[in-house]
Hints:
Elements (H helix, E strand, L loop, with lengths): L3 E5 L11 E4 L2 H4 L3 H17 L1 H5 L2 H7 L14 H4 L13 H20 L4 E6 L6 H13 L5 E7 L6 H10 E3 L14 H10 L7 H9 L2 H18 L8 H7 L4 H19 L2 H14 L6 H17 L3 H14 L3 H18 L7 H16 L4 H21 L3 H18 L6 H17 L3 H14 L4 H13 L3 H14 L4 H13 L3 H14 L4 H13 L3 H14 L4 H13 L3 H14 L4 H13 L3 H14 L4 H13 L3 H12 L6 H15 L2 H13 L9
Parallel strand pairs: 1-4, 1-5, 2-3, 3-4
Helix pairs in contact: 4-6, 6-7, 7-8, 9-10, 9-11, 11-12, 12-13, 13-14, 13-15, 14-15, 15-16, 15-17, 16-17, 17-18, 17-19, 18-19, 19-20, 20-21, 21-22, 22-23, 23-24, 24-25, 25-26, 26-27, 27-28, 28-29, 29-30, 29-31, 30-31, 31-32, 32-33, 33-34, 34-35, 35-36
Amino acid sequence: MTAHQWRIGPAPVDGEQVDIAVDCHRGLRGPYTGLGSLLRLVVPEAYGRWPDLVQRHLTEILSAAPELRGAIDAAPETLTSLAVPEERTRIYPANRTRRLAHGATEFLAGYAARAGRLPLRLAFDRVDQADPTDQEFLAIFLRRVRPDVVRVLIGTGGGELEPELTAALDRYAGRLPELTQVAGRPGRDPEELLRAYVDADGTSADPAELAAYRQADPQARVALHDARAALLRGRGDWSLELGAIPWQLERGSDPAGAGAEALYEAARHCGALGYYHAVIDYGTRGRAVVDPDTQMERFWLLSTRASSAMVVLGRTVEAEPTYLDLRSRYAEPELQMSTGYALAMLYTRFHPEELRDHHLARGYINNSIAIASLLPDPQKRAFHSVFQNNGLALIEMRLGRLPAALRLVDDGLNRLDRELPGDKHRLHRSVLVHNRGKAYLALGRLEEALTDLTKVIELDPNYADYYFDRADVRRRLGDLTGAVADCDTAISLSPPFFELYYNRADLKAELGDLAGAIADFGYVVELEPDQLDARVNLISLLLDEGSVDAVRPHVEEGLLRHPGDARLLHLRGVLAVTDGAAADARRYLDEALAADPALVAALASRAALAFDGGDHERAVADLTAAIAVDADNPDLLYNRGFVHEAAGRWAEAVADYSRALDMPGADREELLSRRARCHAELGDVDASRADQAAGTAGQPNLAGAR
């Protein structure tokens, strides 16, 4: 059997042949419990035998399995990763975990291929209890990894899964017969059952163990939790601090102290890595164990960790009440300042479009600016004033006041240079330089934007996104080779993300490197098959190269994911034309134009089909409709002129050829040759000779445009 497999029921049973099995329950080690456990098992061997393979994937390996730090090379550091918590002013986007998942997929496939254990059989159990990071990874892994290289067995207990993983299992995994839950080991007394439940770190599904836990003496439970937490801490595995240890401490003798501290540290760590679902969980649990009246700072920080994570995940309406609640509870100036900034960003940037209110955002940020200006510590006053004014600059940009935004950012940089030591807030300095570069870009001041993006790269040379942004500026300046070089550097610094490859593919196509563009667009749709523009571009380039057979699966996969898309229906029609199936081609082109009547490519293709069938009137009608949409396209005018010429409508053909000759990009020699023939048919010998002479000499001739 070559398919991956999906089993619903208890843990793997005898007869399931697996090389490595891992437990994915997030209660054990939090985000990437399953992937991290797998990496801890295979990376040491891989590093000893193929260090180059590990070095290509350091970021994703160390993000999912932090215990390996020190055992293998360090990942490239950025100012974001180096910043101390109080200086961290940049957060990762929500899709960073997708990049990590793609990189881990490629590492594991490479490991299996080099180890020669084909297929490597991997079992992931209790996946329905896994953190969204693991479920996202498994959805991508199932889709991308070939079953002859790695064969995956997914075990679930019947709980709800993330939609992407459910879809991947339905498509890529064969369903095994459902197994019934096996009862726990019989004959255990209540103390054994209680200890078993605590030792399972809250992941036990055994009803007898749960019952014994609930019925046990509370003090006995607390003692067991404290002892278990101490035992786990003694192992020195950092990832246990993201799962089992906080769970034990929440239920131990000091939930509001040690428990809240463990939850806060877990939230801080996961927030720094972009594991936002876990941050919400830790923050919510932490709020439940602390006293908001006596532990104001801890309650505040746990609350804002959770609400900030909600914002990044797009749950802004859910997040806003937390900020308002904090503002109503406490008169602490820095809290009022930070929540005012957060609310300003909600209303200018993060809320759904219908809820945004830039003027309300200005009100919140101006209040925060006023508070910042009154802070007693001069360094804090300088930093927070600059930070809040940077927020105001973003609002000004949203309001279209670009010069004001630029002035605010520039003034902020100057103030930091004047009032703070150069080694303080290096990350925020780089953010300000980057923002100033973006303001220059919005103003069309490309050379200045390039200067600032080059400066920010000098400040933070391992941050891939800066090269991505500079590539865009270089492209606009016409430096396509430099733009490709920046894309190459960004790719070398980051786990895979499709936007980089998409932009590089566009650049390569513009430079005439069609093979390179095809490879990059192909990789984009491998990473993210729903990227429709990349798929359409890939198909078009493959057709240009004559690779018709390579196009077919892309068209069908595209239509499977985007049923009724006009561009894909058009391309299916193009394939049918290639196959000589005129009736099918006509049907597909009709469907494309029903979906998008203004799709110029489909109108032109249907016109060509009609012309080939001798239906000149229909061809002219479709070309006329296409020209109404794209009036400055010389090729459309040439084609309509050609149809008129074939139908013997010489004057109409002359008119179209003449219009086309006035347009940039026209094939002048061919147009003059065709117009000369039409003039001859009309009896205008002088105009015909003039066109022939101009065509031969390569010179324009407007004499026939009467």
